[in-house]
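Need tokens for this chain, all 427 residues.
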Amino acid sequence: MTVFLENARIIDPGGGTEALGNLVLDGGVIAAIGDMAAPKGAEVVDCGGKCVAPGIVDIGVKVGEPGERHKESFRSAGLAAAAGGVTTIIARPDTSPAIDTPETLEFVTRRAAEASPVRIRHMAALTKGRAGREMTEIGFLMDAGAMAFSDCDHVVSDNKVLSRALTYARAMGALVIGHPQDPGLSKGAAVTSGKFASLRGLPGVSPLAERMAFDRDMALVEMTGARYHADQVTCARTLPALERAKANGLDVTAGVSVHHVTLNEFDVGDYRTFFKLTPPLRPEDDRRAVAEALATGLIDILCSMHTPQDEESKRLPYEEAAAGAVALETFLPAALRLVHDGTLTLPQLFRAMALNPAKRLGLPQGRMAEGAPADLVLFDPDAPFVLDRFTMLRSKSKNTPFDGARMEGKVLATFVAGRRVFAAGEG
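Here are the structure tokens for all 427 residues:
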């Protein structure tokens, strides 16, 4: 079926532009962009002047399969992603068991293809069992389809093990995704250290724990020449080190979660466990600095860091509660806060959410160009709503920090390979 999107406000993150126009989707790709008429027999979709942008490519989504399907399945994650305008999920390997063998990777790849309406690709663990002692079979895992390698928040503390893994990854051309947090300083921490942590009586971790770990990783990247992506840079003090690493020619990129650029430490309020994240929310000065780094391109990628947790693991004292928040469906409206406050333009936002992650992973998605995959999101950036986590979220887990929040930005339709996988008001 050929689809014709007319009267669309087309967001092009590559060209940095937005303009009214039409699109033809045919054969799974964008066949034409411009002021043409609808092809004969095409399904015509009147966008009503609303925005059409490349579908979001979300690095670092936690799906519960295998082992924790009650928290999130490939089916529920796919439906949530489609409703949120996410057309490609890059799933994390911190499952139970970890995705650390080709057999496990092939299993989850099959399950995802069967169950999800959006594309799901997978990372694999960097070390066996994410235990930080012995690296995985990187070559075999790449052959099985691994997009990148990461132990997620189980930071490899043994420098020799990490240097060997980085050296091997360099030889294979593999991307390693690190979590820059010093594991010793971060252990047991619930919030960022400072006056707020002291007033609440909560164990804190200094922002320098991120800077120290990032500096360690940069030294090893310089030594090995590996391709490296920092999953979350959340502190102002890390930014100069990131800038130096790029200036020195290291193959380094950095990301940040939507929560760390739209929320701060005060949102924890009276021990609200839905705001407990890894790393913890930062002071407002850090949030502003990181948001500005996203605008300038110093931080390359904005992600959801979707981490489903069941009610039982969140209904605990703040120190004991599980960390993480769901975000596939709130990703776009939360990120649009940065557009509404003037920090980012829409092309800049989709550069960070779609184009840059696709480029870093070597994927053809994320582009608004003829011949690019017809993975698109149609949305109204100004539509207001109040989020109700029980009635509005498709994720199995409902642990969102935005419950009850006033938000702007609604997804109207999502297309994967030219096929509509979500339409507002249906299902």
